[in-house]
Amino acid sequence: MSIEAAIAGRLAGVVAGPLVGRLQRELARRGRARGSLAHALDRIAAPDGRPVSPTALLNELPHGVNNRDVLSCIETPEFRALAQQLMAVEILDGDLRAATKIKFALRDLFRERFPNADVAALNNYSELLFVHLHRRCEGLVRELRAALKDESQAIDWAHATLARATADSIESYLAVLARPHRLRPEDRDEWTQRYRKAFSLHEEIPLPDLGNRRRIHYSEIFVQPRLAHGQTGDWTSFDDFVDSIDRTVLLGDPGAGKSTSSAISASLLFQRGRSIPFYVVMREVDFTASGFSLVRVVEEQLSHRYQIKVPEGLVEELLLEGSALLVFDGLDEVQSASLRRRSSEIIETASRLYPLSRVLATSRIVGYSSARLNPVTFHEYRIQPFDDGLVLENGEVRAYVSKWFSVGSRLPEPPGQVADAFMRESASIPDLRCNPLLLAYICVLYRGHRFIPRSRAQLYKKCAELLLADWDNFQGLPVDSETDLDTVRHTLAALAYRSITDPQWLAGMPEADVKTVAAAAMSDEFVPAHEEARRLAEDLVDLCRGRAWIFTELGTELDGSGIFGFTHQSLQEYFAALHLARNSGTPELLADRLLPELMGGRWEILAQICMNLADEKWAGGSSRVVTRLLERGQTTEGDGLRTLVEFMARRLDVVKVNVATMRLLMRLAIESYLSTGSGELREFLSPSGPYPEAAWAAFQAVAESQLTLEADRGTRHGLAVAWLVANVHYLPASPRDRQAVDVHAGPVRAHLDSVEGLRKIALNALHHSPAGWALSLYTAAADIRTLASPQARRAAGPPDAAHSNVLSVMLDTAGTPHSLGPVSPAAWIFDILGGTGTGAGQRWYGRARDALADLAAMLGDPMDTLVNLDIPRLDDRFLEYWNTHGAARCDRAVRELYEQSGGADRGGSPALTGLVYLCMGLMELFEEAFTAQVRYPLSLALLAKARREDSWDTAPLLPRLTYPARRFVQNWSKGSHIWNMDRAEVS
Fold first, then answer.
1. Is the distance from CB of 958 to CB of 970 less than 8 angstroms?
2. Most buried one in 96, 160, 582, 808, CB count within 10 A?
3. pLDDT tens track for 301-320
């Protein structure tokens, strides 16, 4: 291969990249990003990697031109632009006249670059290079068409790749190249360097700190956002987004960082030498001017914003050759719908006039649809809210907070320590801290006060005050000194309440209605004259128009008037709650207004803010609101009351309640748990809850009252209450939480255990239900001797249970309530003696030991009482408990009782003997009835080995057991059975 062919092949691959890249993005939009066509395009777009030999190049060069000169010419934007245009011509079936014009333009480019070379030789060389380039472009296009031979994958090439526009721009570009006074390459490079230095102002952004307005380099505070492709929904990193900018729209909510991200993207492409950005701020452009010229707009902004004089024709040349990036920032900020549509048409026209250059537009999500850029040509990306650690490790919130406290005002503590504290204290407001703008304001608050208000009302109030008092100054816009901030605050409150309660305004409030509501609110409270109120309302609308403030323009009507709304739902909820609280005469009236919304699953945050505001307005305001809600909720049908209790379980950390209200909540939570098994009670009593001590005190008071009330009634409700009291420490799901909750649960359980009503209820239920049998054991209302009576054993299981022995009752799981508490009495033994922190105090430890000792005594001579018994009901839940926790707890219990037991001279340990009986019964069931793998800790493994291997010596264990048990254990180890496996089956 000649060197010219090698150069042409490599160059063709490079220039095909942007055009093929557009097709690849179109395939991704259509869900074919990973198909065979996509792989073919990857191969086609890859430049030819074969090395170019400088020696071979010398053989063909004209005299006076070396290989380095030619390579530098090929690397110029002019050459690349002509090569891309040639590729576009071939895609459009090869227009011979256009190709000939490109050939002559390449010849003129070589002449301009090498004025001292032999003209004829230089012409021959440029034509030779053109022939090779042309052939390679033809080959690439054939490969592309072959990749598209499947009709189901056919795509309109001229539309998808903008090849038609590229070919159409050839005449304009050749005219630019033919200008007599074009800038020399060295002068252009010098201008580019000056412009790059001026454009670096976009690398500095204002520190989002109202008390410190200095500008800092973006790397000190900027956290790269995650972006989602608007058409496919696929996630894209910020770096990949920057690389893919071509015909691109960046969308985001107010305060999400659209302008910052677009400016940084432009700076990065400029630094990497891939594009020269021209930044157009849409609200500064007059789209009404006749004869609109984009080039003139760019030149004016370069002059005014960067103080850079642009040589004549340079902007258009950069745009035509593909060296430029056009950034249109704030498409949604253009004032009227008609002008917004015109601005979209101008952007689309620019993308066709300058097809080789990149185009990036930014807009808010709301309002973009009215002037959407062609979605076939422009790919949309949406900035996602900051991740709070759910998707990314640590998350973008943590990264931003760390940077903010590192670059902000000096603090006495290390920034990392402050950031850690901030993350902990702001955990209750994840929806707010995921918005970069609001997060910055919360950082400002925390820096000043060193805490984040638990009350959302206080937090929103502080943020709103910062926005009201400082946002316009921060943007460089003057505040109307005649507008009192209280007037603005309460006018916004009226607008928020009307927009959140009137369905027709959920998507935004028309400008005329905004003025009407605002004027009415002002004249009702603050302004004595209607005319003045109307004027102030109009001023407020003008203030909000086109700015990401609290209340802003979201879009426009067909007549050009605005549609307005709040920039963040949280701010809307705060101001609506402010209006509602201010206009409610009593906390009870406020509760009555909130009740239907909360019972319908709405207004949860708004209601919380109202309760916070009620505390500021009335003594005990939030408690009165909550009490009224719960009292009214008890008179309603359906799940309304449960919805209210669930709401309070989620919001108790930020809503203050007094003792009486806490007890009312606890009573309703207990009733809800007993009737439906719902989780509000678990949340109230959680060790990680806001007031665990107060919650457990309320539980104690309510439970004691109900135990006393139900003691002599013999009702199912009374048994359910007693069962809950005896096993409430099982409510936390994990053992770790149970250990943590025992700090509060232990004293409460000890107190309730002494309530006589608890044992009365257990004894009343002893002969009527399995729960009564187990409860009598757990509360020591009856000992094993009483529980082993035939009548009690029959009550310990379902009607078909054959409990011929108390051992089977101890192991049985079929008749024990599984929603709360141990899965069987045996599990209760293991949990207490295993020392897992589930209330294993001395009182319960003694009960468990006594139960085992009584079990051993009741069995008497086990050779008579532990042979051929009906097996207990043992289901898979017990096996799961055993393998997860039970085996380890049983092992600890065996070891501890073994250490405490005496030798033969002391007659053995009844408690250890009873425990060994339980273990042997379980092991026999495991071996005979369960096919699943069972975990054996060391102590039980030794028993299992004794049963399987006659040679294993049980001598170390036998002296620790009571006398009657020793001979039985020896016989059992030789193969005797406790259970009659033919008479029943394990579930």
1. yes
2. 808
3. 888 888 888 888 888 888 88
